[in-house]
Amino acid sequence: MDTFDLRLWPEFSSAGGDASGPAIVNQVAIDSRRIDSSHALFVALEGNLLDGHQFVQQAGAANARYALVRNNWKAIDSHPSLILLRVDNPLRAFQGIAKIYRQQLTNTKIISIIGCYGKTMVKDLLQAMIATSMKSAASPESFNSQIGVPLSLFTVKKEHEIALIEAAISQENEMDALTQMIAPDSSILTNLGKRHLTTLGNVDALAAEMIKHLKHPSKKGWALIPEDAHLNLYLGQLNTPIHFWDAETSVLPHAKSLSREETSAIPYRVDFPDGNQFAGQITFGFRYFLDLINIAVKAAWLLGVRSENICKILGRYIPEPMRTEIWKSPIGTTFINDTYCSDPQSIDQALKYLDQAPSQSRKIFVFGGIRNPKQQLVTEYRRIGQAIHQADVQLLLLTGQHPFTPLIEVVKKHSPQIEICQCGTYQETIEKLKEIVRAEDIVLIKGEKKESLDCLTEAFNDSICTNQCFINLAAIHSNISAIRRKIAPGTRVMVMVKAMAYGTDELRISKFLATCGIDILGVSYVDEGVALKRAGVDLEIFVINAAFYEASKIVKWGLQVGVSDKAMIEALALEAGRMQKKIKVHLHIDTGMSRFGCRPEEALELASLILNCPALELNGIMTHFACADNPAEDTFTLSQVDCFDQVIAQLQTHQIQIPWRHAANSGGALRFDFPQYNMIRIGLAVYGLHSSESTQKALDLRLAISLISRIVGINVCKVGETISYGRSYQVTRDRQRIAVLPIGYFDGLHRNYSGKSQVIIRGKKAPMVGKICMDFMMVDITDIPNANIGDSVLIFGEDEHGHYISPQDLAASGNSIVHELITCLGPRIQRIFVHEV
Questions:
Q1: Range name among 37-46, 139-148, 512-521 with the lowest pLDDT average
Q2: Interatomic CA distance for residues 540 and 559, integer angstroms
Q3: CA 157 to CA 776: how far, in whole Å?
Q4: CA of 732: how far to CAs of 360, 604, 736, 740, 784, in Å?
Q5: How many Å apart are CA 700 and CA 730, to the nearest integer?
Q6: Between 345 and 127, where is the model more confident?
Q7: Angle at the Cα of 114 (from 113 to 115), degrees rounded to 5?
Q8: What residues pair up with 443 in beta bridges, in sequence order?
Q9: Pairing relation of β-strands 363-367 and 395-399?
Q10: DSSP H or E segment with residue 560
Q11: pLDDT above 90: percentage of residues in the chain
Q12: Strand partners, 327
C-alpha cells in the first residue's frame, strides 16, 4: 500500500488518535505474525475461533504503531509504544479506513468483479491482458469478503492505472458495505448460478443484491453483465452503459465455439471489431471457460487493451481449475496442491493448511517463487520468510530459477533449523520428493503456475488414480454457515463424523471442522472418538451410546456420552471417581425411535442419579427424531417433541436445569424451528446432501461430494451378445460400444443399481448395462463415439465441466438412500479434498 495518514479517517480523533501530527501507516494487518513495518496498523477482528484482541500484545511486540480495538476491550499489558484506537466495531472501522484509502486513488480505475462463480479466473485472465500495456493491481487470490475487500484495496497504489477488485456476498445487504468501499468506476458481473446459492434463498434475491452494486459506476464507466432473466426487472435502474458479455455485438470482440459437440478439445474463435481474429482451443470445461474468455476479452477491450495484446495472452492461456487439492498417497504422505501464487497474502492462506496436520507430521513447503517486480522482492520475501517461520516448516524446497537469495537469507536468519533445497524445475522437485518423503509427512505445493494433480498421483501412485471421491471443503464451510444463519443465535452445532465422516475421512474432516467454528463433534462408537483424540483432535467429542464395559475408555479419553440406564451411569461414575476426572453426560430419552434412550417415565430417576454422582456432570438431554425429513410423518415428529418437552418440564419442576437440549438431526434442523432447544446434531446436510425433497426445499445447500471413475476398457459387441454375469442385458444393435469402469459393489455401487442409472462421459449420458460386478461395471458409450480409455466418468455429483448427477437420484434408482450410498464407498476409492469456492 501507499503511505496513508490515518487523520484522513474521520473517526481518528474520537478513537483516541492524536491529530496534532502525522499518523502515517504503510501496512494494515489482521494477523500479528505478518507485521513487518514499524508503521503498521493492526486490526483486532473477532472470528469464530479466535479474537484478534488476544494478539494485540504480539502486534506491539512486532513494532506495530497502531491497533484498532473495540471500545470495551480491557488492555492487559498492552505494548507501551502501541497506540490503541478504540471503536464500537473494528470491522466497520477497518472498512471505513479502506473506503478513505480508496478515495485517494483518484487516478486509478477501479474495476469490480462480482457474481456467483468465475470471479477469480476472470480477474486473473483480465489482469494478464491489462498488464501488457498498463500498470495494474488485483485482489490477492480470492480475497472478496467483508474482510478480503479492504485487504485487497490496501494492495493498490497510486501508480496503478487499473485495479481489479473481487467482491462476494453470503448474506442479504452485505453488498452495501462492499460497494461503499470499492466505489467502482466500472463493474463486471460474471454469472448468477443457483447451484452456488446457499444463503440468499433464491436467485431473484441475489440479483437484487448485484444490482445494488451495479448502480454505482458513473456514466463514464460501464457494466459488463450476462443476459439473465433475473436481472431484467432491474436494468432500468442502471444509469451506466450496459454491455452483455454473452451476446455478440459489433462494438465488442466476441468468442464463439467452432464446434457444436462438447468433446475433449473444442476450437473457438474471437472476432475483434478492428478485424483481427484469434483461433484457440479449449480442452477443459468448454462452456464455462468460453464464458470466462468472453468476459475477460470484452472487459479488456473496454479498458483499451489492443487486440494484438489480448491475442498474445490468449495464445498461452491454459484454463485450470481454481481450487486447492488435498490428496493422501498410498504410503500416507499428504499433498496439498494449492493454486498458483502471486502474492504473500495467498501464501499466508496456504500455510494455514499445515495447521491441520497431525502433531507428528513433518511439514514440507514446495515454493515456486512470486511474480512481483525485482525491486519489491526483498520486502515480499521478508514477509514470506516470517510466515514460513510461523508455520513451523521443517523443509523448504525452492523450485525454478527465481532470485530466491532474499528469501533464503530471511529463512536462515529466523529459522536456521529449516533445511533448504533448490531444484531447477518442478519435475526435479517431484523426483527429490520421491527420495525423501515418508508416511505422515505433509507437503504444501505453491507456485506461479497450477500443476496438475494427476502429475502428483502418477508420481507417487505410479499411475493416475482411477476412482476418486472429491470432497469440497469450501462447500462444507458454506453449508455450515448457511445452517448457522437458519438456526437461532447461540444454538450449539454438533457435526457428526461417525462412519468415517460419512465415508470421507474422519480425521481430515474433523481437523477442518475445527476451523469452521464447530462447537462439538459427534460419533457413534467410543473407538471412533478415541481414534480422533489419539490423532490430536482438540474439539469436544460426544458418543451417542456406549456399553458399560467401555466406561474406563470414555473417562480416560475425556469423551462426552449419551446415557440411558443405571448400569452405565454407575460404571462411569466409578471410573471417573477412580481417575479423579469429571465426565459430561447427556441423558438420552426415547420418544419413539426405540433404539437407544430411557423411557420418559424413567428420566427423573436417572437424572437424579447423575446429579448425585460428583464425578458426573449432567451436561445435556437429548432425543432422536425418527422421520423428521418426511412431511407425511410430521404428526409423529411433533408428538416426539411434545413428549421430550414434557420430560424437560418435569425435570425443571424438580429444579433440574440442563445446559444443552438437543433433538434435531439434519432433517429436523432444516425443516423445523424448535426454539426450546439450543443444540442441533447435523451430518448429511454438512455435505449438501438431502434425505428428502422437503429438506431440499427448506434450505438449498452446496453439494460437497462427487465420485469420478475412468474408462479402463472398451468392447465392441454384436447384436444378441450379452453383458456381464447372469446375461441380464442383451446387445440390441451391431457394433455397440461397451465401456468398462473399474468400480463395483465392493466399492459401494451395489448390484441394485445395475441397469438403472447412467453416468456422464464427455458431457453425455451413458446408461449402465448388465449386472454390476465386484470390481467392475459396464456402460453403453455407443452414442459417445469419441470416448476413449482413460476418459473421466462422473458417477454422481459434479465434474469440472459443471455436469451434474444427483446422488439422491442415483441412490433412489437402487432402492437405497443417499446415506448408504456415500458411507459404503470403499477403501480403494481415493479421497481427494479440494477447496473450491
A1: 139-148
A2: 7
A3: 58
A4: 58, 68, 8, 18, 17
A5: 41
A6: 127
A7: 135
A8: 335, 364
A9: parallel
A10: strand 560-563
A11: 62
A12: 335, 832
Terminal-to-terminal C-alpha distance of the chain: 27
Residue count of the chain: 837
Q: All 3 cell numbers of residue 647?
A: 420430560
Do the Cβ atoms of 321 and 338 come closer than 8 Å? no
Q: To which H or E segment does residue 334 belong? A: strand 334-337
Task: State yes or no: pLDDT of 117 exceeds 90.
Answer: no
CB 798 within 8 A of CB 804: yes
Residue range 758-780: mean pLDDT, rounded: 94
Helix (H) or strand (E) holding 407: helix 405-414
Own/partner pairs, 354-358, CB within 8 angstroms, 24+ separation: 354/391, 354/392, 354/393, 354/442, 354/444, 355/391, 355/515, 356/508, 356/511, 356/512, 356/514, 356/515, 357/442, 358/440, 358/507, 358/535, 358/536
pLDDT band at 141 (very low <50, low <70, confident <90, very high): low
pLDDT of residue 198: 47
Q: Are 796 and 707 in contact (CB under 8 A)?
A: yes
- Output the nine-digit C-alpha cell for 256: 464463439
- Residue 682 gets which letter from DSSP? E
C-alpha cell at 161: 492505472
Reference 681, options 820, 543, 526, 825; nearest CA is: 543
pLDDT digits (tens, 9 = 90+) for 431-461: 999 999 988 899 999 876 767 788 888 888 8
**CA 690, 696, 698, 704 torsion-angle sign:** positive
The C-alpha cell 479466535 sits at: 50
Distance of CA 485 to the CA centre of its chain: 17
Helices within 106-262 (DSSP H only):
119-130, 148-153, 174-182, 203-214, 229-232
Residues marked as catalytic: 498, 725
Cα distance between residue 350 and residue 445, in whole Å: 9
Taking residue 822's Cβ as centre, other Cβ atoms within 10 Å add up to 26
Three-state SS string over 214-247 comes to HCCCCCCCCEEECCCHHHHCCHHHCCCCEEECCC
Task: Give whichever of 254-268, 272-286, 391-405, 638-652 has the largest mean pLDDT.
Answer: 638-652
Average pLDDT, the chain: 89
Mean pLDDT of 3-11: 94
> In the block, which residue shows the cell 492462506?
349
Residue 696: what are its φ and ψ, rounded to 5°?
Answer: -65, -40
- Helices 506-513 and 473-486, axial angle in degrees (round to 10): 50
pTM: 0.80
DSSP assignment of 271-297 equals E-TTS-EEEEEE-S-HHHHHHHHHHHH
Q: Which three cell numbers stand for residue 360?
A: 507428528
Rounded to 10 degrees, the C-alpha dihedral 321/327/329/332 comes to 160
Cα 618 to Cα 608: distance, rounded to the nearest angstrom: 10
d(CA 570, CA 576): 10
> For 352-407, how does the pLDDT look when each residue is reduced to its tens digit (9 = 90+)?
888 877 777 899 999 988 766 555 667 778 888 888 888 889 999 998 877 888 88
pLDDT in tens, 527-553: 999 999 998 899 999 999 999 999 999
Residues forming a β-bridge with 282: 266
